[in-house]
Structure formats: structure tokens, C-alpha cells
Amino acid sequence: MDSQEIAWWQHGIVYQIYPRSFQDSNGDGIGDLAGIIQRLDYVRDLGVNAVWLSPIYPSPMADFGYDVADYTGIHSLFGDMADFDRLLAETHRRGLKLILDLVPNHSSNQHPWFLESRRSRDNPRRDWYFWRDPAPDGGPPNNWLSVFGGPAWTFDETTGQYYLHQFAREQPELNYRNPEVLAAMQAVMRFWLDKGIDGFRVDVIEFILKDEQLRDEPENPDWDGVDPHGRLKHIHTRDLPGVHDLIREFRGVVDAYPERVMIGEVFQFDETIVSYYGAGGGGCHLPFNFRLIYRDWSAPSVREAVASYEAALGSEHWPNWVLGNHDQHRIATRVGFEQARVAMLLLLTLRGTPTVYYGDEIGMEDVSIPPERIQDPAALNQPAVAHIFGRDPERTPMQWDDSPNAGFCPPAMTPWLPLAEDFRQRNVARQDADPDSMLNLFRRVTALRQGEPALYRGTYREISLGEADAGVLGYLREAPGARRFLVLLNFAAHPWQLDLAALGAGAEVRVASHGGREGPVALNNLALGADEGLVLALD
Ligand code: GLC
């Protein structure tokens, strides 16, 4: 079997671009499509296979594009449809795929559908959203909470009813129990698929069906007392059994086109994730697997995360791994700059499709945002926990070089979010010139992965390292007839001496997290440095 026999999205590496922050081409301090086109050679040379763009549609930007006012247009901030067509063509010309973000759970409150819906109680689109009378005391119809703080209902004077929104109040939820809504969203999908995009990342896919009776949610006995939204158990707003029927309807649209992918955003950390592949594989090709994000960063914890996920999937479902995105604190901030290299080796050598967040390949860190520049609704609505749930810090401009504004936008402009203070030290140009940089490490490991069947489609087998299991994760990647690989990742800040004679006499270091180690090594007495990761080809 060679790479032709698995789908591109199984073989491939997905690179997420947050369009506002990648490259500004028109000097307004906000990234745009023409800017992305300018940087496509860089993306291709990373050795990734697909680009996923966070939303680029017309939007009042209450949630930075996740509040869509027109599902089949392009926001003027980002360009126009001609720019999009050019981006798609240029992406494909480089052998890359293009994945768009589909946000079906809610629209903007400025979407014509909602503007109509709110007009009167008998408007034909009234039932496209959730409208309910106030509770007897005049308050919201039930106790549901918004992820961004406060109740999930907002009162609308026009008709004296509340509407539902599980995110910002500017993001009213669409009602998929009305078949017209599903049909409208399927038409949106066809619009983009007909243009030739290669798939969708579907936003909060497990939220799209709500309890028909809108029953109150129970208190969460395991609440950590920190996340206001976590106070309730979301048994009536998330992961309802019927959601899989709806997902199958979305997937049906995707399947009418060859070689497309559907990735779903789900927050499931146990075997429930398997249900999102759908019965008979009719769900998401890849339900995002976020378990590395919500874990302690230690060898035992990561070992268990991989083992439980692998066991749940079996050989039937294709795995995927994510270390960061536009909603999560940067990996380099969470685990430190040294461990970020280990994390990248892990992401790119586990079994399954990796998704990489822009800037993580150079070890970008969270940027602390002065209070007056905070923009994210999750932070603005919840000042007490803004430092935990605010998402601006991980959305800052890409650090291209050491010129003013890091090459992201013209020197005289103020970028929409502040740049990292250390961008003069940590940027693409500088790392490009340094063979031991994180960027060149990233390129080395993607290059290796792309050419080695054991790495892109082989099995995963955990190995036991005795005492060192406390600090080191070791695993084999194997495919019939292909070169075998051993991956050793030291999560600890101290070295180990390993005896791996059981795996053979010799091996060759093919990629090392820190420079100068490539070449043959003896397996019976292998030194693994502090914070070191090695990818070894076995004899
Ligand atoms: C998803 C997106 C996030 C957005 C939310 C509401 O979680 O990743 O950025 O705020 O959905 O659309």
C-alpha cells in the first residue's frame, strides 16, 4: 500500500490560518486573502498539505467572523470573490488543499434570515431561530447559559420574545428542526464545493441540535467553580443523540463530491468521540481530537491520552491530533519553548492527521493584551475570567521578520492586535536562516513524515522504558514492508540513559528536537537529553 491508497486528508497535514492575522496586503492592519496568497509558498514549503481558513465571510465581527451575515460572500476586509477564486487557484497550483470554516449553528444577528425572523411573530422565517416567551417572572425562558458568559437568551423588544444564543448575543442559533434551515445550509455547502474547495471544518457541530422542549439543564456537580458556563451540565444543548442524523445530512452533501473532507469541532474526551465518525462512517471524516490540549503535559498523561484514544478508535476510524487553535492558549505558552519542540514532534509523528495552528511552527507564544485593546467577546463579557478564557492572546499577527510590525502590515499601521514583544528575535526570517530553529525542525519532520509510510499511515505501538516511563514517551511507528521508526520524547527537564537493546542494535537519528544529533546511535546505551525528542529509523 502506498500513499495513493489512503485519502489526502489521511496522509496530509492541515495548517490553520487565522485570516485576520496572517498577512495584511492593503495596509489596514488586518490580514486578508491577497496577503495569504503572498505567503502560500511559505505554507507549501512547510511541508503541509491543506490550509484551513477561519471564516472569511461578511460579518459584523462580533465574534471575529464566527457571526456570519452572508454565507456565500467574502468580507470586504479580506477582499472579494475574485480574490477568493485566485486564492483557491493559487492554493491548488501549489498542490495544497483549501478547507473553509462552516458555521451552521448560528448566524449573525445581521444576517437577512434573522432580520426577517425578528420582524414579527408570524414571519415565515420566525421558526428559523428559537423564539420563546419570557418566563412568568419576565426572565429568560430557561436556565441555559452562553459559553461567553451570562444567559443564553436575549430579549427582543420588537416582538416581546427572547431568542437563543449559546455564544455572543449577536449569534442567534438556527433551528435545525425546521427542514428549511437544513436545506439552506446544504445549499451553502454546495455553493463552496461547486467552486472547488476541498472541504469544511464545521464549527461547534455537537451544538446544532437542542432539546425539543428546551428543558432546564441540571447543575454540574463536578463544576470547577471557574468557568461560568461549566456550572451546568449541558445535556440539552450538546451531543444530543439526534445530532448524528443531522451530521449525516451535512456529510451527504460533501460525499456528492469526490475527495472532500468534513472535519467537525467536537469537545469529547472519552470514547463518545467515536460516535462523531457516524454509524457506518457517515459522520465527520475527522472529529477534532483536542485531548492533548486539555491534559497535563507529562509523559504518563500523554501516554494515557494516546492509548485511550487509539483503543476507542480501533482500526476502523482515522485519528487526528490538535495542539492549538484560535480558541486555545498557544502551545509554547502552555508547555514552554523547549517543550514546544517536543510537542511538535509528537503532533507530527503520532498516527493520524495533524492540525497545526499558524505560528506554532516558530514557537509563537501568547501575547499579553493591554485591557484597552481586548477585543474577544469571551473576554469582554467575562472580565473576571478574561485572563483564562480570552482568546486575543493566541490570535496576534504572524511574526515574519524583524521590521516594524514584523512584516505583517506596513510600519506606520497599528495591527488589529498587538505583536509579540519578542518578534525581533522570534520570526520566520530569523528562523529560516538558523538550521537549529524550531521552523527548520518543523520542516525536517514534515519532510521525513511525507516520505515514510510508517509515519503517515503505520501503526502506533507504545514501548515500555522502565523507570524512564515517568518522563519519556516512547513509541514505534510501523507499516508492512516499510522502514520502522522509534520516537522518544523527553517531557522532563533532565536527561535519561536508555537501554533499548530489545529493539535492535543500532538506529539512526533522523530528526532531533535540538541540533547536532543526526546519525547512527547505539540502542543499548542511548542518552536522551533534557527536553529532547528524537525520531529514529530502526535498522
Ligand atoms: C467555535 C469557534 C470559536 C467561536 C465559537 C462560536 O468554538 O472555534 O472561535 O467563537 O465556535 O462560533
What would you say this structure looks like, in words?
- This protein is an alpha/beta fold and 539 residues long.
- It is built from 15 helices and 19 strands.
- The protein has helices at residues 8-11, 33-38, 40-45, 81-93, 112-117, 179-195, 243-255, 299-313, 331-335, 337-349, 377-380, 386-389, 428-432, 438-451, 453-457; strands at residues 14-17, 50-53, 97-102, 131-132, 153-156, 161-164, 199-202, 261-264, 286-287, 320-322, 353-357, 459-462, 472-478, 485-490, 496-498, 506-512, 519-522, 526-528, 533-538.
- The chain has an eight-stranded parallel sheet. A six-stranded antiparallel sheet has the order 12-13-14-19-16-17.
- It is globular and about 75 Å long.
- The structure holds alpha-D-glucopyranose.
- Alpha-D-glucopyranose (GLC) binds at residues 63, 66, 103, 167, 203-204, 265, 326-327.
Map the helices and strands:
Layout lengths: L7 H4 L2 E4 L15 H6 L1 H6 L4 E4 L27 H13 L3 E6 L9 H6 L13 E2 L20 E4 L4 E4 L14 H17 L3 E4 L40 H13 L5 E4 L21 E2 L11 H15 L6 E3 L8 H5 L1 H13 L3 E5 L19 H4 L5 H4 L38 H5 L5 H14 L1 H5 L1 E4 L9 E7 L6 E6 L5 E3 L7 E7 L6 E4 L3 E3 L4 E6 L1
Parallel strand pairs: 1-2, 1-11, 2-3, 3-7, 7-8, 8-9, 10-11
Antiparallel strand pairs: 4-6, 5-6, 12-13, 13-14, 14-19, 15-18, 16-17, 16-19
Helix pairs in contact: 6-7, 10-14
